Amino acid sequence: MSGAYILAIDQGTTSSRAIVFDGAFRSVAVGQQEFAQHFPHSGWVEHEPEDLWTSTLAVCREALAGIEGGASAIAGVGITNQRETTLVWSRKTGEAVCRAIVWQDRRTAETCAALKREGHEELFTRKTGLLLDPYFSGTKLAWILDNVEGARERAESGELLFGTVDSWLIWKLTGGRAHVTDATNASRTLLYNIDENCWDEELCGLLGVPMSMLPEVKDSADTFGTVDPEHFGAELKILGVAGDQQAATVGQACFRPGMIKSTYGTGCFALLNTGETRVASRNRLLSTIAYRLDGQTTYALEGSIFVAGSAVQWLRDGLGIIEAAAESQKLAEASDPANRLYLVPAFVGLGAPYWDPDARGAIFGLTRASGPADFCRAALESVGYQTLDLIEAMRADAADMDTDDIVLRVDGGMTASDWTMQFLSDLLAAPVDRPQVLETTALGAAWLAGYKAGVWPGMEEFSGSWHLDRRFEPQMEEGERTKLHAGWQDAVRRTRSA
Ligand SMILES: Nc1ncnc2c1ncn2[C@@H]1O[C@H](COP(=O)(O)OP(=O)(O)O)[C@@H](O)[C@H]1O
Ligand SMILES: O=P(O)(O)OC[C@H](O)CO
């Protein structure tokens, strides 16, 4: 027997989570597990593929144990994942050839620079909507083929498979019966043509990637495979897949052009729904696939910031000036605005709209009076300034779109800080909406699966279930806003690598 429960798997950068949602979109059981991060060289970030798999398996079992009927009560599985992270494994043995190269990893900065020097960036951008930055999967995959012993020969003979984390988990869950991904994940690889909706032979050729390694690309709500019953005791169907930022866009019900969601976790990722039209950014934002439903692609403009909540982690683990993230707000409130510092948290380079992989973090305005409270305030404010950069770029790019006023829906761990959300609204001079349900990423994956299973309603009714927790309205005077923005722009200018 199966019910209206949906199991959502959210495989993130620092932890794996599983949530069971009921037919009223409420979270009824949860499992969560952190796993090790590996930093073998400066700028390198890796995950052990087995950790991604075993932690996912464990959290699913934990969540399923929390509902009556366990796996037999589940109508479908949705998967959402950290994006761009790159894995290669053997189709014969299922063994990965090396650790997963994580989206934050910068080891291919020189490869990207060389491709740019050779004049290839325009081609990649035109076809994929992305830029030549080490963030995306393509150059990470090329690195594996060029640097892991025997990998290129094995790939060329058809033995090796490539996948983002969704593909890897589906391969494991189905006992090696499905090598698939969805259009949103494919759109982050630098190998996928987002207009024609297919892997691109020319781009694969430029990066030296054999096309036999690539997974089949499906809609975001589709039949991806059946989970081997040995894992959970029942045959579950995987019916929804999307990259985590796209899943949050769905979970926030940003279905209309002009709606923006911005997620504040480790990094910050803002997506503006541009509807069925792909908008080419004039301001170094990405064009990407928001979701593909029933063969119809909806596009988004995306701004990606690599450091948001991780600046708060740095206050805690690097500087030791707070013990828990939630303390940051109180300390920031105690800071004297006359001692204002500007922190540019370019710990792993700068993302949108600067795309400067070689920049490193800097702090400006230090005096003998500067102390922990000022560092805290600067860290929280840096998130607001970086978002302002993105929203300004989006406003300029969307000027020709026929949309209502911009609506910003926020989610992620950092949105718990009212102070940070108020500062964000002040800087943007626009309202910021925080929903009641903050598990929007998992909810988005669950909706895709529930919709495909036919047990959850369509977009309109699902949109009606979005409820506001709090709207932050701008309170800052225009003169102050302009002064602060100019201070930030100056700090960024002085931080840039060239
Ligand atoms: N009250 C808070 N104030 C500021 N930052 C917070 C607060 N609570 C959590 N965070 C930050 O939010 C991040 C965790 O958010 P989460 O959405 O779970 O991230 P991820 O999915 O990327 O692991 C951490 O980096 C943490 O520092
Ligand atoms: O795992 P998260 O939530 O930090 O998200 C990572 C993004 O998908 C990277 O593009």
UniProtKB/TrEMBL annotation:
Q: Which reaction does it catalyse?
A: glycerol + ATP = sn-glycerol 3-phosphate + ADP + H(+)
Segments forming a coiled coil:
none
Q: Which keywords does this Swiss-Prot/TrEMBL entry list?
A: ATP-binding, Glycerol metabolism, Kinase, Nucleotide-binding, Transferase
Residues annotated to bind ATP? 13-15, 266, 309, 313, 413
Q: Which Pfam families does the annotation name?
A: FGGY_C (PF02782), FGGY_N (PF00370)
Instruction: Detail which positions bind ADP.
Output: 13, 17, 266, 309, 413
Q: What is its EC number?
A: 2.7.1.30
The highest taxon in the source lineage is Bacteria
Q: Name its GO BP terms in alphabetical order.
A: glycerol catabolic process; glycerol-3-phosphate metabolic process
Provide the residue positions that the database annotates as binding sn-glycerol 3-phosphate: 13, 83-84, 135, 244
- Positions of glycerol binding: 83-84, 135, 244-245
Its top-level enzyme class, in one word, is: transferase
Tell me what controls its activity.
Inhibited by fructose 1,6-bisphosphate (FBP).
Q: Which GO terms describe its cellular component?
A: cytosol
* Family to which this protein belongs: Belongs to the FGGY kinase family.
User: Would you tell me the protein name for this molecule?
Assistant: Glycerol kinase
Q: Which organism is it from?
A: Stappia indica
- Output the lineage of the source organism: Bacteria, Pseudomonadati, Pseudomonadota, Alphaproteobacteria, Hyphomicrobiales
